[in-house]
Amino acid sequence: MKAVILAGGMGTRLRPLTNEIPKPLVPLLGKPLIRYIIDALPDEVDQVLIAVSYRKDDLQRYFEEHDLGLDVVLVEEKEPLGTGGALKNVSPYLDDTFLAFNGDIISSLDLRAFIDFHRRKKGIGALALWRVEDPSAYGVVSMEGERISSFLEKPPPDKSPSDMINAGIYIFEQEILDHIPQGTVSLEKDVFPHILSLGLYGMVFDGLWVDCGTRESYLEAQRLLIGGRNVYCEGAEVSPLADLKDCTVLPGAKVGDRALIRRSIICPGAEVRAGEQVLDSIYLG
Ligand code: GTP
Known about the structure:
Mean pLDDT: 95
Low-confidence stretches: none
Helix content: 10-25%
Structural class: alpha/beta
Order of helices and strands: EHEEHEHEHEEHEEEEHEEHEEEEEEEEEE
Strand order of the largest sheet: 5-4-1-6-11-8-12
Shape: globular
Bound molecules: guanosine-5'-triphosphate
Number of helices: 7
Distance between the termini: 44 Å
Number of domains: 2
CATH architecture of the largest domain: Alpha-Beta Complex
CATH class of the largest domain: Alpha Beta
């Protein structure tokens, strides 16, 4: 089976972090976001297609320098074509059922169970669904049993038809590609609402899920994964007199004596000076 990772977005909500690197390479506990997806792929995935555009050279270099033991192919869009346009652009490489992922998702979804779910339902595709208290910032789905009956993007608070949101993890039959028009296309807005009659199913899961696309959610992902410790990347300089908890110090960052840092990410080249306090921040220096 092949897996497509959408990795070409501009990541504007994560600026300035994404001025220098594409969002899929933004490090979480020192490991690029996209690796969390690749490392969790089931054995039956034998090729990963990465749909790239914005800062594609950085991704190319990363995969040249890191052998992940999988066949990785970067497929380029000259200009970002949106999530649907990116899938369409990968069409020549797809010949069967395939998995697809937003490249900025951290999740504990059991992909084997997800594949089995899709094979049982026999629809054109399936979406992983996550429950949230406030769905107003997300794409919300309504269900009839396990079948998706409608989509609503970012409903007003208290007007949401359900608490289930699109988790950005999909499995599709190749046939979906025939329903994606050429050009710039959003999978969520321009494709899904038009293929409901072909059977689009939703599998709700629990455990862990974070869309790391905003500064708040990126820090939240770190909070959930780090569990009270700190991650000091190679080349980070941290004074033994500094006091840190739930922090990542990235390569080339410095932390001085008696600095107090909590739940933060200290970015490459940033310097937290002696005695300085940093709380709940992406610290750029
Ligand atoms: P924002 O600018 O902050 O909205 O971020 P984004 O551009 O990454 O968009 P969004 O978070 O909605 O994207 C979800 C996933 O799809 C991310 O992994 C993106 O890299 C990817 N993505 C979004 N747009 C495109 C695109 O035009 N082409 C490709 N190949 N991937 C895309």
